Amino acid sequence: MNKRPGSQRARIGTFAVGLDTYWAQYPGLLEELLAGHREFISRLKGQDVEVVDFGMIDNALKAQEGAARLRGAALDLLMVDMVTYATSSTIGTIARTLDIPIILVALQPASALDYQRATTYMQLCNDNICALPEFCNTIVRMGKPAPPCIIGMLHDDVRAQAEVVRWVRIATVLHDLKHARIGHIGHPLEAMYDMHTDQTALTRWFGLHVVQAEIDDLVAHALQVNAAEMAAKREEVLALFDLPEPGQDPHTEKLTGPDLDEAARAAVALDRFVEDKALDGLAYHYQGLEDSETRRLVGSLIVGNSLLCARGFPMCGESDLKTCVAMFILDRLGIGGSFAEFHPVDFPGNSVLIGHDGPHHIDVAEGRPVLRSLKQYHGKVGSGASVEFQIKSGPVTMLGIAETGQGRLKFIIAEGESRRNAIPATGNTNTHGYFGSCIRTFLQRWCAEGPTHHFALGVGHYAEELRLLAGALGIEAAVVHGVEAD
Questions:
Q1: Whether the predicted pLDDT of 6 surpasses 60
Q2: Are 78 and 13 in contact, with CB atoms under 8 Å apart?
Q3: Against a cut of 0.90, is the pTM above it?
Q4: Is it the case that residue 327 has pLDDT exceeding 70?
């Protein structure tokens, strides 16, 4: 995962549950169950998270004592290891006390009982699902949603292990969201109502903080960049990007030396700015006076922004804080998160171009990304170096974050496919997106969910992770499907 230096790993709490009455009745049972619990913990620790184990909770008194310790442990997620039957008194107080996702994990040691030799002891060693209904009922009666349940085998169960890993990834996103500092400069592009964002709502739903910064803070860093720093950044840029000849668009040309210099200077300034403000991302839109230092700088941020996106710092223009958060989420899932919107439809090919001008996550580019000089940024002031590439071919996931008429946030999610095809040489990112057998029906269904016109685009299919993440955050989620082929 890409993280700002000094950030910490997600913290997952776990404990085993059982019934204390069993221990005297069946000598050795407790030890055998705890051995299985230790194996589960070792798997969690192999996923690059911090695991806090609270041992065995097997009665109501231990649950009451454990609730306080759990609450004070600054956990991002709790996995309850259902090693055998337990009464719901072991979860009731804890569920009421904690305000984090609780996952019930029932991993049975044996794939099935040896029925000819089965004993009560053997059954109790494999009674992992027995208390799941009781625990779910109790958690719901505590006023919480029914918890997700992972059901499977402790050994050689690829599906169960994948579900555990999925929740580890979600815990990482939850942790990083709670500690994120997303910078904001300027204001939404004039008249873009969908870009307006209730910043207090972002703190309410995600825990993050929006850092209000001034464009002059960034300009001050740009004025301090020296020739050696610019030269080093130019070399970094040239090592990553191709510089093709212009296509048919008269607003584009081969990257010019002055544009490369300005892009390098802006990139160094952005690095310093992000470090100075301890940021984890930035949304901005600012115009500045014509021929001013400010306008030259804001017109040169795209390359530096794209470099930062690849390092785990989502950057997006048009002051789109909501999509900046969506890009952050996809990055922390490890699937990229590029700034995107819908471009023209290819009706004969049943695809839609997906892309945007401005910053992009170059780690998910198909081949080497391209830099072009744009004589004019369409719809905005300024000119300069711009990034162009296609998203990697294969499965893709879209995440849009919208605000509803009731002032709540909403995830809008879709899975599709990126296919290699011709794109316009306009200095903008574009990729051909395929979403079932009828592109117009998919677009109608997407628009019916009330999205903003921007979204984050990542590689791979991760709609289920995003749906579960939304549930963990208490946010509505809509998964938009295309039309299946006959």
A1: no
A2: yes
A3: yes
A4: yes
| Lookup: tokens for 417 | 């496919």
pLDDT in tens, 180-206: 999 999 998 878 999 999 999 999 999
What domains can be seen in the chain, in order of their start residue?
11-177 (3.40.50.10940), 180-480 (3.20.14)
What string of H, E and C letters represents the secondary structure of the chain? Answer: CCCCCCCCCCEEEEEEECCCHHHHHCCCHHHHHHHHHHHHHHHHHCCCCEEEEEEEECCHHHHHHHHHHHHCCCCCEEEEECCCCCCCHHHHHHHHHCCCCEEEEEEECCCCCCCCCCCHHHHHHCCCCCCHHHHHHHHHHCCCCCCCEEEEECCCCHHHHHHHHHHHHHHHHHHHHHHCEEEEEECCCCCCHHHCCCHHHHHHHHCCEEEEECHHHHHHHHHCCCHHHHHHHHHHHHHHCECCCCCCCCCEEECCHHHHHHHHHHHHHHHHHHHHHCCCEEEEECCCCCCCHHHHHHCCCHHHHHHHHHCCCCEECCCCHHHHHHHHHHHHCCCEEEEEEEEEEECCCCEEEEEECCCCCHHHECCCCEEEEECCCCCCCCCEEEEECCECCEEEEEEEEEECCCCCEEEEEEEEEEECCCCCCCCCEEEEEECECCHHHHHHHHHCCCCCCCEEEEECCCHHHHHHHHHHHCCEEEEECCECCC
Q: Are 253 and 372 in contact (CB under 8 A)?
A: yes
Cα 350 from Cα 416, distance rounded (Å): 12
CB 255 within 8 A of CB 372: yes
